[in-house]
Structure formats: structure tokens, C-alpha cells
């Protein structure tokens, strides 16, 4: 459900905006609200399972996600929708990490547990691809169905979990770092809010003040983590500078991925006139390119230093985003959009696989879990930052082209050719933000991510040992 939701919402944003009368900023917050709640509370969510019982917290998380999905589908205005999206993110932040822990305690070490992890990974990949088609098809009927689809699935999981899952006694001695989780979420939210308002003018107090306060709260968060031994962020895992840079690169990769997928989904619907279903089918080659890049990187990382593969992925993404600058409201799919999608997707696959492997390169099996969870948080919280910045740049470009005619943009149900052209220019220019982030990631990896193929192989063994118990 969690993976499916992340895919289908992008395709429904245009229809939500038209029906609910959302501004461009509020439209972005349909995605941002969920991602911030999910990423900000993810590490705390895993601890809740240990403190209060994994079965109880998993079913509670799924229940909250399911109830929030129902509320999202019933929303009649932005306040209800955004609040329900936050609740969805909270439910996902509890259910996702506890689900992984339940696999460990439910399945015996060895082949059985490895098969369970393989099924889990396969379902994640299937959810990403099927969400493109299913989300597009459901949005054609009504965007509300992309949320209501979660309700019967969630009810089935809760009923099945009550019957099948084993009760594991909670570890009451675990201390929860609620303060750290709140500080991280507040800091991320303030930074994202400031960036998201940049489209109306980067020098405005509404932009500068949230960014400054958010940065101060972020500093307070890191200080709080240094003063406690039970913090949500295990700082001792960052002693290796190479690994610290890997996490920064994962933040950048998450920013690129979310910004690109949302902006291109809006571009093909608002500028090219695609239906949600056609947009879903148009994005399927992204999964092909991603898989190709991931396969090449997975084979090459055995003998080639990961920093070269990450840099190569960054170069592919740069090429794709610069080629995207040729897109406009009259671009064709086969000659323009498809090559853009394939080039960028291949670059993402080339970069993400070695980055993920570097997270656990040369570590002990007991460190694999915390490092993997932290890497997921880095990617998840990077997404809102990238989307907020890219959307603001795009809005700024569209405003400059339309000048006094910009208010007509909000009438998304009836866009004139001139407005479609201006929106296309904004969306393509927003992808330059992605290009810049990809370039920074490539340079940082090339200079500082100096893990060797031998250390990557050692990390793979530690990961296998951690999964098999």
C-alpha cells in the first residue's frame, strides 16, 4: 500500500487541483505532507514496535493508514486532504519498519527468511510499476478511488494480521527519542515550506524566515542527538566520512527522483494534454531504464569502484535533464519524452545501486539494520526538499512569462495554448534543479565516496548475515 500510494498520487495531482481548487503550492503539499510525516517519523516508528509490541504497532500503523486513506477520498477541501495525508504518513512510518522486523521474528533464519525478504522486495517493485497503470485508470474514474483502493487492502491486512502474526513481548526498557523525531520533522517542514514559497519571490520574508528557522531547528536536532544515547539518528554510524557523504548523496538522489517524477507527471498532463492513464503508460519505460541501470551497476560494482558508477549515473541524469530542456507543449512522445525518461531512469539506476551498497560497505551485521533505515529516511526526506525547490523554480518561470495573466493559470480546467506553453517552460526549467542536484551528487561521490569493491562485497556478506539472523 505504501509503495502504491507513492506512485498513484503523482498521476492524480492535476485532477485533485481542478476539483478542489488547489493553488500550485497546496497541490505540491498533497505530496509533501505525506513524505515529511513518513520520513520524519520513520526511525521513531521502528522503535515503537520494540517498545510497545511489533504486532500491535504494525496493525495500528496499517489501521491509521487505512482510515486516513478513507478520509483522503472523502476530502472536500485542502485542509481535510492535507491533514489526512499527514495521518497517512504517520501510519506508514509505523507500519513500514515494523513490517521488516516482523519478517525477522516470524520466519526462521536461512532460506525461509531470505525467501520472505525476496517476496517483500518483489511486491515493492510490483507496487511501483502497477501503480502507474492502476493509478491512471482509477483517476480516469475519480481521483478519490486511488485512496479508497487502500481501504479493502488495509482491512484485509488487519484481519489477517490479527489471526496470523505472532505476539512478541515488547521491550519496555527502550527509551523513545520523541524530541528528536519532532525536531527532525519540524526542521524538514520549515525548510520545505520556505523553499515551496520561492516561486512567488525568493526575497520575501515568507521564504527566508522559515528557511532560517528550519536551519536553526536542524542544528538543535543534531545537538539533541549528541546528548542522548537513544537518539533516533545513530550518530556513531557517521564517523566514517565516506559513509556520511553517501547519506548526503542519497538525500540528493531522493530530491532528484521525487522532483522529476512529480514535475514530469504534471507536464505531460497539463502541457501535452495526456490523460492520467496515458501518463501512467508513458512512465512505464522509466521502470525499464531504472532496471537496466541497476543491473549494469550491480554487475560492475564487483570490479569497479562505486564512486565511478555513481558519477556515471549522475552524468546520465545530467544529460537527460539537459535534453529535457528541448521539451515544450508540442513535443512528441517517441522522439522527445521517451528518450528523456530512459536516459534519466538509467542514470538513477546506475547511481542508486552503488549508493545503497556503500551504505553497508565494510560494516558489521549488527549495524546493517540502523544504516539501512537511516538511508531510507535520507532518501524520503530529500524528496520534499527537491520537489519544493523545483516547483518553486517552475512557478517563478511561468509567472515571469505570463506576468499579469498568471492568475488564469489557476483555472486548470480550461487552459489556453499560451498558458500551456508557459507551464511547459516552467516545468522544463524546474528540471534544471534536478540537473544541478545530480551534478553535485556526481562530484561529491567522485571526490569522497572512496569505498572499494572489496568493502562493498564485505557489506553484502554482512547484509546477508543480518537477514539470515
UniProtKB/TrEMBL annotation:
It comes from the Bacteria. GO terms for molecular function: transmembrane transporter activity. InterPro entries: MFS, MFS_dom, MFS_trans_sf. GO terms for cellular component: plasma membrane. It is a multi-pass membrane protein. SUPFAM superfamilies: MFS general substrate transporter (SSF103473). The chain crosses the membrane at residues 26-45, 57-80, 86-107, 119-139, 145-166, 178-196, 202-223, 244-268, 274-296, 308-327, 333-361, 430-451. PROSITE patterns: MFS. Its main location: membrane. The keyword Cell inner membrane does not apply. It is found in: Cell membrane. Keywords: Cell membrane, Membrane, Transmembrane, Transmembrane helix, Transport. Residues 1-453 form the Major facilitator superfamily (MFS) profile domain. This is MFS transporter. It comes from Corynebacterium heidelbergense. The lineage of its organism: Bacteria, Bacillati, Actinomycetota, Actinomycetes, Mycobacteriales.
Amino acid at each position: 500500500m505504501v509503495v502504491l500510494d507513492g506512485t498513484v498520487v503523482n498521476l492524480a495531482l492535476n485532477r485533485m487541483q481542478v476539483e478542489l481548487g488547489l493553488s500550485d503550492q497546496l497541490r505540491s503539499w498533497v505530496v509533501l505532507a505525506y513524505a515529511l510525516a513518513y520520513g520524519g517519523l520513520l526511525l521513531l516508528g521502528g522503535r515503537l514496535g520494540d517498545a510497545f509490541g511489533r504486532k500491535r504497532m504494525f496493525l495500528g500503523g496499517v489501521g491509521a493508514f487505512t482510515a486516513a486513506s478513507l478520509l483522503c477520498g472523502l476530502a472536500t477541501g485542502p485542509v481535510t486532504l492535507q491533514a489526512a495525508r499527514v495521518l497517512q504518513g504517520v501510519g506508514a512510518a509505523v507500519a513500514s519498519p515494523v513490517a521488516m522486523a516482523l519478517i525477522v521474528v516470524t520466519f526462521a533464519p536461512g532460506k525461509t527468511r531470505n525467501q520472505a525478504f525476496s517476496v517483500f522486495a518483489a511486491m515493492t517493485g510490483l507496487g511501483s510499476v502497477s501503480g502507474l497503470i492502476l493509478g491512471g485508470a482509477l483517476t480516469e474514474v475519480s481521483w478519490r478511488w486511488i485512496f479508497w483502493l487502500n481501504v479493502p487492502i488495509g482491512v484485509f491486512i488487519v484481519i489477517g494480521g490479527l489471526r496470523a502474526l505472532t505476539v512478541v513481548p515488547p521491550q519496555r526498557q527502550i527509551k523513545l527519542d520523541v524530541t528528536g523525531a519532532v525536531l527532525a520533522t519540524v526542521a524538514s517542514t520549515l525548510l520545505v515550506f520556505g523553499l515551496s514559497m520561492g516561486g512567488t519571490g525568493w526575497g520575501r520574508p515568507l521564504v527566508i524566515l522559515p528557511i532560517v528557522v528550519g536551519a536553526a531547528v536542524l542544528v538543535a536536532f543534531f545537538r539533541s542527538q549528541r546528548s542522548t544515547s537513544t537518539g533516533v539518528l545513530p550518530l556513531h554510524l557517521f564517523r566514517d566520512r565516506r559513509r556520511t557523504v553517501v547519506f548526503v548523496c542519497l538525500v540528493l538522489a531522493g530530491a532528484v527522483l521525487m522532483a522529476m517524477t512529480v514535475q514530469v507527471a504534471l507536464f505531460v498532463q497539463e502541457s501535452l494534454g495526456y490523460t492520467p492513464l496515458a501518463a501512467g503508460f508513458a512512465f512505464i519505460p522509466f521502470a525499464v531504464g531504472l532496471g537496466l541501470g541497476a543491473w549494469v551497476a550491480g554487475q560492475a560494482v564487483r570490479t569497479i569502484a562505486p564512486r565511478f558508477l555513481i558519477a556515471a549515473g549522475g552524468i546520465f541524469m545530467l544529460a537527460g535533464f539537459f535534453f529535457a530542456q528541448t521539451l515544450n507543449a508540442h513535443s512528441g512522445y517517441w522522439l522527445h519524452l521517451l528518450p528523456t525518461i530512459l536516459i534519466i531512469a538509467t542514470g538513477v539506476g546506475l547511481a542508486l545501486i552503488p549508493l545503497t551498497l556503500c551504505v553497508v560497505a565494510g560494516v558489521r551485521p549488527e549495524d546493517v539494520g540502523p544504516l539501512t533505515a537511516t538511508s531510507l529516511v535520507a532518501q524520503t526526506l530529500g524528496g520534499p526538499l527537491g520537489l519544493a525547490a523545483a516547483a518553486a523554480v517552475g512557478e517563478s518561470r511561468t509567472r515571469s512569462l505570463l506576468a499579469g495573466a498568471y492568475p488564469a493559470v489557476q483555472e486548470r480546467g480550461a487552459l489556453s495554448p499560451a498558458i500551456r506553453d508557459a507551464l511547459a517552460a516552467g516545468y522544463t526549467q524546474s528540471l534544471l534543479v534536478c540537473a544541478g542536484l545530480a551534478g553535485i551528487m556526481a562530484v561529491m561521490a567522485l571526490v569522497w565516496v572512496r569505498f572499494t569493491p572489496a568493502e562493498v562485497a564485505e557489506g553484502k556478506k554482512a547484509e546477508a548475515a543480518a537477514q539470515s539472523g
